[in-house]
């Protein structure tokens, strides 16, 4: 089952480091807005986690896990500038699942794979509680933003942009 090992690995990490967290069970959901409503918090307190492909030159592709507030979107131009890259775009679902250890919609704001670089927008790190699906559609975690920063140790760069509005 994708995510099962990743879920247990994260819980073990949180427990062994005495990191405070809350476990939240809910109906299966992977969309940020919908799962935030199920968990009972604004989308701005959610971690939106997106696996990206970043090409720094013709021969070099890096995989980046971008983490932004749930009410924002990943600014691909900012990611491209951060890595001085020629291209930044979304990874295909199979690669994202392999590197993140869970299916899209359940990706953690942590990287347990050395081939997946973690970069987070600074707004994520200051949230009193940061909410995210825990490598499962039916279970989420809430971790204090500063505790997340200490534990995950992401590269911090301004990579979030306002969500696009329709109409």
UniProtKB/TrEMBL annotation:
InterPro entries: YbaK/aa-tRNA-synt-asso_dom_sf (IPR036754), YbaK/aa-tRNA-synth-assoc-dom (IPR007214)
Domain YbaK/aminoacyl-tRNA synthetase-associated: 26-150
GO molecular function, one term: aminoacyl-tRNA deacylase activity
Origin superkingdom: Bacteria
Gene3D superfamilies hit by this protein: YbaK/aminoacyl-tRNA synthetase-associated domain
Stated name of the protein: YbaK/aminoacyl-tRNA synthetase-associated domain-containing protein
Taxonomic path: Bacteria, Bacillati, Actinomycetota, Actinomycetes, Streptosporangiales
């Amino acid at each position: 089952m994708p995510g099962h090992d990743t879920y247990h690995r994260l819980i073990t990490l949180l427990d062994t480091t005495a990191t405070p967290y809350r476990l939240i069970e809910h109906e299966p959901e992977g969309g940020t807005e919908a799962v935030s409503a199920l968990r009972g918090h604004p989308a701005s307190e959610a971690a939106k986690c997106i696996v990206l492909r970043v090409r720094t030159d013709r021969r070099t592709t890096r995989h980046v896990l971008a983490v932004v507030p749930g009410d924002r979107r990943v600014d691909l131009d900012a990611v491209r500038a951060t890595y001085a890259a020629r291209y930044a775009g979304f990874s295909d679902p199979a690669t994202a699942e392999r590197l993140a250890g869970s299916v899209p919609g359940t990706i953690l704001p942590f990287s347990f794979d050395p081939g997946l670089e973690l970069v987070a927008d600074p707004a994520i790190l200051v949230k009193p509680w940061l909410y995210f699906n825990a490598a499962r559609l039916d279970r989420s975690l809430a971790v204090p933003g500063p505790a997340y920063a200490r534990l995950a140790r992401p590269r911090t760069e301004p990579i979030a942009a306002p969500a696009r509005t329709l109409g």
